[in-house]
Amino acid sequence: MSTVLAAAQDPTLADFGRDPWWLVLVKIVFAFAFGLLATLLGVWFERRVVGYMQVRPGPNQVGPFGLLQTLADGLKMAFKEDILPRTADKVVYFFAPTISVICAVTALSVVPFGPKVSIFGHWTPLQVTDVPVAVLVLLACSSMGIYGIVLGGWASGSTYPLLGGLRSSAQMISYEVAMGLSIVAVFMTAGTMSTSGIVAAQAHGSKLDVFGWNVTAPGWYAILLLPSFIIFFIATVGETNRAPFDLPEAESELVAGFMTEYSSLKFALFMLSEYVSMVTMSAVTTTLFLGGWRAPAPITTFWAGANSGWWPMLWFFAKVILLVFVFVWLRGTLPRLRYDQFMRFGWKVLLPINLVWILVLAGLRSIEDWERPQRLLATAIGAGVLLLATLLWPSKRKAPKPPLQEQVNSRPHGSFPLPPMDLQVPPSPRTKRVVAEREPANVVAGTDSREV
Amino acid sequence: MTTQTVLAEAASVGGGEAVTFWILAPLALIGAIGMVWARNAVHSALWLVLTMLCLGVFYVLQAGPFIGMVQIIVYTGAIMMLFLFVLMLVGRDASDSLIETLRGQRTAAIVLALGFAGLVGTGLYRALDGVRAVGLDKPNGEGNVQGIARLLFTKYVFAFELTSALLITAAVGAMVLAHVERRKQDKMDQIATMKARFRPGNYPGPKPGPGVFATSTSVATPARLPDGRLTERSIPEILPARELTAEETSLKGTERK
User: Fold this and answer.
1) In the predicted model, what is the mean pLDDT of residues B123-142?
2) Which own/partner contact pairs does B239-242 have at CB distance under 8 Å and 24+ positions apart?
């Protein structure tokens, strides 16, 4: 397999919209089934992994390794009573979970699962569709998904869901800003907004000339644009309402947040949308930053055919599962943030870092084709300005506190009386007696006595 | 036919485009009418969301995928969400009242609306009469996003920057007006609070709860001080002081049947 053939399998925008209707249908059904199956296995995976982290088995009774536990739970949920609260707004209450699920699943339609393959004689990309603004379609889906949660919270006609809905709308709008800004760096580097184009742009690293050496820069944007990648992933955790950012459904404060009043299949739909959006976000992160369906670096050197045919789906799913594992890992590790800390983190940490990083990246890209000495000079000036700003940044450190006696002397008249500073508490006579009466502990001095 | 050509081929109306239009145009109109007619403010906002979504799809159909997606993300996703945010805080039962406060406003509104619609309609008709649509093939030649970017950063760069400056000014002004931050020295520390509490004329103890040592459990019943006097400080100021009837003050459920 040569690189020429591999390049021929790279789908471009012109390859989309040529499929017969049955192939389009097959692809759509595949993406939908992928979402459902991912939920089914995702819940099992999460419970098993969290169980392992908490030193307990997790679900292991239904089916092999407990694989069918989620199916059993889903069936049970379908047969539960569907409760409609008296104060609920009936139409909106009914539509809210549907909106959530539709938006979560629709986002999968622009995710590339693999290169062009032959399906029953049709040479077609493994992706439902691609448009010049595919990444914006993803953003639109995630921003419309908020409606499901907010309307569900409002339509329940009760306080906890309303608070959960309000929290989630504020949270998701804030984190969408951070998310959008980190995608800007990807757009700037890839030069396109179509997902297949972004995957293709990560195929080969650019040749760099570092002090005379020809170094191939890594192609993955996770390495090239590391700050964007980190911020994007944090923002996706906030966007999917997953721990440690699961404030809209914080059970210690809001019962179950926006889904407190939901039961039966409607609740199942909310659950479904949460897991589908977790998988979707993992797939999007894979596409934007982890090279999409392309095989990780060492594999392609040993095996040139790793990026052709149906194999790329393997790499894609491996990367998605890895990211889902990180989601679960975060949930198993980190405690929930307080709401104000969470919002401050989004607006005052993620956003400014992102803006500065985009500025730096834009600067680096605009001096790319300059002469070497000028480029070095520009970089040095930029670094110097950055260094000066860091050094001269007004520090928040407070003045050292005066010694204790001085603080005591400077207290205003009429302050609360203090006990003397040199007060020595004498040992209680009772403690003395107990110690004297106790038998000596080292009756048998073993070899491990020192450790006791 | 590829996506690109589908998007660029706005000059001639294709079959898919016509079908989409005839499905979504009634929906957009229903959304607009529903927004005006809905009694509940949140329902009104949701109808508007429907119209905006349809508009977004129309933009995509008209070879403007970028503006269509931006319409959905910014207007539907962010701005309407903020509207909803405020409407929800107002309360779910805040519906329109049907009492007219201005005399004859309905008739005036209908007449003005018809007049406005007539003006816009004739204006549009006269502007578009005899105009041949050329489509967006030429502006979209190097890609829709790239075309918009080129215009924004060359021809319209000052207009764009001025608009952003205006918006930032508005945002900062709103923050200055709404956000009150007290200076550090204005905050009362523990000593200042203590002194204020023990200043002459102020009773330092906690306020007695309403109904303490009283004959009724109503919050409107003032508490009694240890010397038997009633204290007015125990009742919230907004409650009217009222005399209780003998029946209300008598113990309930103790008399023999």
Assistant:
1) 81
2) none
